[in-house]
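re: the backbone from monday

yeah here it is again, tokenized this time
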């Protein structure tokens, strides 16, 4: 069962109107017991106004008590309380990490002797993000090229998505270095894990109490490797001992080769059964073109621009939804629903048609066109 499917609960009744009425009734009853006379507190009575303030304080206190009690439950816990719940199942919040890539460094001539490139040499792109060699590397004698792994100096997702060749500035140039470019898209940088994703991993934690074996265990351990992983499929052909992990990153991003290699190496650290061979791979892309024309009701003439903006937002939401899950069929019905919900009177989907996407594939939009067809009468 998913956490979202668990019933909502309250530990304390929070009903402002009932609380106020109870306090007023208690006062009127206490006044009668003390004096033998009935006193009715009408709106505007100074005592009734004072009791309003006391009711407000009680309502606020009840809300605090209810929220504090809920923090003991995984569905509601936040922040440090969530981290303490995670510690009970040996699951800890993922801290921010720096993105990585590989740099190809070229040298002026064959070196007669091996050269050492010290740790700390930096490279940059045009907007000033620095990538650094963390450990010293050796250029063998006679070689004119060297491929090294570098990390972004600034941790977090800010270093992701830099395309090959864009990191080409040698900030700390050695005399025999001629040029340097990154070979891969930068990936692997993550911000500190959000409460929602951390909560999901805690819920999955029992799957990881033993080494990876069931598909749920592989999914748990893979998501512990990086919070960039949005979706993952674990499959195996019976009797082969080979476990295929098909991985998709946030926002439908396809993982780079270095990211997949890192994931495979992560599983060798006492996680997988000795007899299993783990292969991490990117999903196969299923490209599709999307061409849509929409119309707005003429009765909404005064709010046309506002509706158009909402429809564009819904359109982009569909593009992200479609590519954010492995094996999700290309579904134009979902597109029509989102655009209609955003205010479109009528939606014409020229393309795509419904396309079945397999469990090792992911849909990727290619040519995208959203056209406003005009206003129509109902």
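seq for it, each position gets an aa:
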């Amino acid at each position: 069962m998913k956490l979202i499917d668990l019933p909502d609960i309250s530990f304390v009744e929070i009903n402002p109107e009932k609380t106020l009425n109870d306090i007023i009734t208690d006062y009127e009853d206490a006044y009668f017991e003390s004096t033998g006379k009935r006193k009715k507190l009408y709106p505007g009575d100074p005592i009734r106004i004072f009791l309003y303030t006391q009711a407000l304080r009680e309502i606020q206190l009840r809300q605090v008590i209810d929220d504090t009690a809920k923090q003991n439950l995984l569905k509601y816990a936040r922040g440090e309380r969530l981290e303490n719940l995670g510690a009970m199942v040996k699951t800890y919040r993922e801290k921010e990490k720096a993105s990585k890539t590989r740099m190809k460094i070229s040298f002026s001539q064959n070196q007669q002797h091996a050269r050492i490139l010290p740790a700390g040499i930096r490279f940059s792109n045009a907007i000033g993000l620095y990538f650094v060699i963390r450990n010293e590397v050796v250029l063998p004698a006679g070689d004119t090229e060297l491929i090294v792994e570098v990390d972004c100096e600034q941790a977090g997702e800010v270093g992701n998505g830099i395309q090959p060749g864009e990191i080409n500035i040698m900030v700390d140039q050695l005399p025999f270095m001629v040029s340097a470019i990154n070979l891969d898209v930068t990936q692997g940088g993550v911000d500190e894990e959000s409460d929602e994703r951390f909560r999901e991993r805690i819920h999955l934690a029992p799957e990881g109490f033993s080494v990876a074996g069931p598909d749920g265990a592989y999914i748990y351990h893979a998501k512990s490797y990086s919070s960039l992983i949005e979706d993952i499929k674990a499959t195996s052909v019976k009797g082969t001992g080979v476990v295929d992990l098909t991985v998709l990153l946030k926002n439908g991003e396809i993982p780079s080769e270095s990211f997949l290699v890192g994931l495979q190496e992560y599983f060798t650290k006492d996680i997988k059964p000795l007899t299993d061979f783990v292969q991490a791979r990117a999903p196969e892309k299923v490209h599709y073109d999307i061409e849509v024309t929409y119309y707005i009701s003429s009765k909404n003439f005064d709010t046309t621009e506002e509706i158009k903006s909402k429809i564009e937002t819904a359109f982009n939401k569909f593009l992200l939804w479609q590519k954010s899950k492995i094996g999700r069929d290309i579904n134009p019905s979902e597109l029509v629903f989102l655009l209609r919900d955003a205010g479109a009177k009528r939606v014409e989907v020229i393309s795509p048609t419904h396309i079945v996407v397999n469990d090792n594939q992911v849909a990727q939009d290619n040519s995208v066109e959203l056209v406003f067809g005009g206003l129509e009468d109902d």
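The chain is about 30% helix and 25% strand. The chain has a mean pLDDT of 89.
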